[in-house]
Design brief:
Blueprint: H1 3-20, E1 57-62, E2 67-74, E3 93-96, E4 106-111, E5 135-140, E6 145-157, H2 163-167, E7 173-185, E8 188-203
Parallel strand pairs: 2-3, 4-7
Antiparallel strand pairs: 1-2, 1-5, 3-4, 5-6, 6-8, 7-8
Length: about 200
């Protein structure tokens, strides 16, 4: 992953995502949970798994929190920030196309809403409930299922977003799932929920 696709994304993109999460009339619910201090950092790895070939993600499943969603492709908006999925009744997650595809070396970034305006809960409403070791499956366009295990879940203030850890270069295939979190004020949320995961297997 190039420095441009990492650091440029880190500053402008996430602010837009979090403002977009939930518009007027959205439900709020309780704040996302914070992981325990015993959770490993994203840099700690278990066994090494070989990267897979580049292929666009088309579906995302997270069995522990009931997520099974199509994945759309997200690029850059006119102002240089990262696009976010549209606020619709049929909410979807979105993969940022300038990050590695899931299963490639580097941090693949998938964004989703926590609430979608008057439509209620977003696809990542329960993201903060994930725990270390739980499975995330990305189905790729070429038929491959890239399976990840959660290594860390964090709820962080937007002002303290850990850009280097989320977007910085890593030497293995990893995944970042990002949404809004914490207390809601006006039309926005105060925090981000970030899930870090590492590739454990890949199969046709």
């Amino acid at each position: 992953m190039s420095p441009r696709s990492g650091r440029a994304l880190a500053t402008a993109a996430l602010a837009v995502l979090l403002v977009a999460c939930g518009g007027p009339g959205a439900t709020t619910g309780s704040p996302a949970s914070t992981p325990s201090s015993s959770a490993p950092s994203p840099g700690r790895s278990a066994k090494s798994v070989s990267a897979v070939g580049r292929s666009t993600p088309v579906r995302l499943r997270i069995p522990a929190i009931g997520v099974d969603t199509p994945v759309m492709k997200l690029g850059l908006a006119a102002d240089g920030s990262v696009q976010v999925p549209p606020v619709t009744a049929h909410d979807r997650a979105g993969w940022y196309e300038h990050s590695p595809t899931p299963g490639r070396t580097g941090p693949s970034v998938i964004l989703g809403h926590v609430t979608v305006g008057a439509y209620g809960d977003g696809v990542f409403r329960r993201l903060g409930e994930l725990h270390r070791g739980e499975k995330i499956v990305t189905r790729l366009e070429n038929g491959t299922a890239a399976v990840f295990a959660v290594t860390d879940v964090r709820t962080v203030a937007k002002a303290d977003f850990p850009s280097d850890e989320v977007y910085g270069n890593v030497n293995r295939p990893e995944l970042r799932l990002i949404t809004c979190g914490g207390r809601r004020t006006g039309d926005g949320y105060l925090d981000n929920v970030i899930v870090f995961a590492a590739l454990t297997s890949a199969s046709p």
